[in-house]
Design a protein that fits this description.
Blueprint (H helix, E strand, L loop, with lengths): L5 H12 L6 H21 L3 H24 L5 H28 L3 H29 L9 H20 L14 H21 L1 H20 L1
C-alpha cells in the first residue's frame, strides 16, 4: 500500500471542506463577510443610519445561518470555517472603526472604551490568524461554540447601543445620549465574554492536534 504524501493529504482535506458547501447558511455567512467593507465605507462617509442598518442586517444573517443550519440540518465543513471568520471580520471592522471615534472623544470613559475595543480586536486577530495557520497545517479550525455565539450576540447588542445612543454618531443621540460610563461597563463585560470564548477553543483544538498526530503515526505504520 503506497503511502500518501503530506501534500496529497492536505489536498484531500481542503477538497473535503467544500463538499456539501452549497447551503443557505454558507450563503448568509458570505453575505455577512461582504457587508463588512460596506459598513466601513458608510461609516467613513458619516452615513451612520445606513451603517446601523448594515450592522443590523449582519446580525440577522448571523442569527439565521445558525438557525437554518440546525432546523434543516444544513451543516458543512465550510460552514464551520465561514461562520467564525465572518464573525471575526465583522468584530475587527467595528472595533477599529469605533476606536478612532472613542479615542477622539472628550470623555475619559469613552477614551478607555477605545482601548477595550482594541483588546477585542487583538483577540479576534489572534483567533483568525490561528485559524488560517491551522488550515495550512491541514487541521480544521474549531467551530464557534455557545460561548462564541453568546459573546458575539452580546457584542452586537453593545455596538447597537453605541450606534444608537453614543454622542455625535448615535442615530438617536438627539433624543437620548448615554453617558460614557455606560459604554465602558458594557464593553468591559464584552471583553470578559470574548476572553472566555477564546479559552473555550483551547481544549477542542488540543483534541484536533492529537487526532492529526495519531493519524500521521497510523500512516507511518501502514
Amino acid at each position: 500500500m503506497s503511502k500518501k504524501s503530506k501534500k496529497d493529504i492536505l489536498k484531500e482535506q481542503i477538497t473535503s471542506i467544500f463538499e456539501g458547501a452549497w447551503t443557505i447558511p454558507n450563503l448568509l455567512s458570505t453575505i455577512r463577510i461582504l457587508l463588512v467593507p460596506l459598513f466601513l465605507v458608510l461609516f467613513n462617509k458619516e452615513m451612520y443610519v445606513a451603517g446601523y442598518v448594515t450592522i443590523f442586517a449582519s446580525a440577522l444573517t448571523d442569527f439565521y445561518d445558525g438557525y437554518i443550519a440546525r432546523k434543516f440540518n444544513q451543516f458543512s465543513k465550510l460552514g464551520t470555517i465561514l461562520d467564525p471568520i465572518a464573525d471575526k471580520l465583522t468584530t475587527i471592522a467595528l472595533t477599529i472603526t469605533l476606536y478612532f471615534y472613542f479615542h477622539a472623544a472628550d470623555n475619559i470613559f469613552l477614551n478607555i472604551c477605545g482601548y477595550l475595543l482594541i483588546t477585542l480586536c487583538v483577540v479576534e486577530l489572534v483567533m483568525i490568524i490561528g485559524s488560517f495557520i491551522l488550515l495550512s497545517m491541514g487541521v480544521r479550525p474549531v467551530a464557534s461554540d455557545k460561548y462564541g455565539k453568546y459573546s458575539t450576540f452580546y457584542f452586537y447588542c453593545v455596538i447597537g447601543l453605541i450606534l444608537l445612543h453614543a454622542p455625535t454618531i448615535g442615530v438617536l443621540s438627539k433624543f437620548i445620549v448615554y453617558p460614557g460610563v455606560v459604554f465602558f461597563v458594557l464593553l468591559v463585560i464584552s471583553v470578559i465574554l470574548k476572553i472566555r470564548s477564546f479559552i473555550s477553543y483551547i481544549p477542542p483544538m488540543k483534541e484536533r492536534f492529537a487526532e492529526m498526530k495519531a493519524a500521521e503515526e497510523e500512516g507511518d505504520t501502514d
